[in-house]
Amino acid sequence: MYIRNILNCLVCNDTDFDLYLENINHTCGILKTLNINEKIDSNIYKCKNCSHLFLSPVLKDELIANYYNDISSEYFNNAPIHSRINEDKNFLNRIQKIKQKGKVLEIGCGNGFFLKLFKDYGYDCTGIEPSPKAFNYAKEYNALNVINGFLEENTFEKESFDIILLMDVIEHLYSPNDIIKLCNNILKAGGILVILTGNINSLNARFWGSKWYYFYSWEHISFFNKTSISKLLNIQNFKILQYNSISHTGGLIYNIIRFSILNPLMYVYNFWIKGKYKHISLTFDHILVIAEK
Ligand SMILES: [Zn+2]
């Protein structure tokens, strides 16, 4: 009723899978938000053809779409905490080395803090964001040109952008192939696509197994590794320029505290240790891929 199984690999469309991890630890409150009171188990499968890993079953499309309208969605939760600002500047610097100016589109821009950074550095910026609340925030507070909705065909002119950003977004998509294809259509020749996502082959992900913090949410459907993200991009004729291992929001210490010690220490960590030693982030369990059309 609430769920559906994934029948085809989200990257290569193959139907032959191995069970990779059982009973994923979803600690998020999505089911509660959607008034679903039953316990639903979900597993991670690995495609035998392209090695892509994905969640199944997943919440039905209309349920997750409803959830993205809710304030508690991860999309909305990206206030400019200190560690995130440093991280965003680091990403901006990497992108600036390839393209110093031009038209930028961020798909799933949330409150717009990352996109605002590009605007401050002189880029011509547009955002697209499904959560109405995040959209309003990006528009009103960050004064950005934002569209409320999902990326669909004909939303933008062909070959009109120099840079497209998909930061913490691709893992949420039920049809990542379609979105990469659309990105290809609306990027100029020589334009770049920037993708940030979790890396299930990282040491941190392997260490935590089914308790890797990245599995916390029903929002995360796809779990990429270097092989599968390359395959996804190559299918749509992108050429990979860079592949970087990144430690993204939450480090090794964060994970240890989160899963082994309870809330009081979490409080100390969040408001003191993390604030003071914001450089402590050693997981390297995300990948930042920059690809060229
Ligand atoms: Zn596959």
Question: Can you give a write-up of this model?
Answer:
The structure is a single chain. The protein has a single domain, classed as Rossmann fold, CATH 3.40.50.150. The protein starts with a strand and ends with a strand. The chain contains ten helices and 13 strands. Mean pLDDT is 83; it is low at 257-263 and 274-281. With 293 residues, the chain is α/β, with parallel strands linked by helices. The relative contact order is 0.15. Strand 6, helix 4 (113-120) and strand 7 form a beta-alpha-beta unit. 32% of the residues lie in helices and 23% in strands.
How many beta strands in the DSSP annotation? 13
- Beta content: 15-25%
Which percent bin holds the helix content?
25-40%
Classified by CATH, the class is Alpha Beta
Task: Look at the helices and sheets and give the structural class.
Answer: alpha/beta
Low-confidence stretches: 257-263, 274-281
Radius of gyration: 18 Å
Total number of domains: 1
The distinct bound ligands, ions and cofactors come out as: zinc ion
CATH superfamily: Vaccinia Virus protein VP39
Largest sheet: 7 strands, mixed
Strand neighbour order, sheet with most strands: 8-7-6-9-10-13-12
The run of helices and strands is: EEHEEEHHEHEHEEHEHEHEHHE
- The helix tally amounts to 10
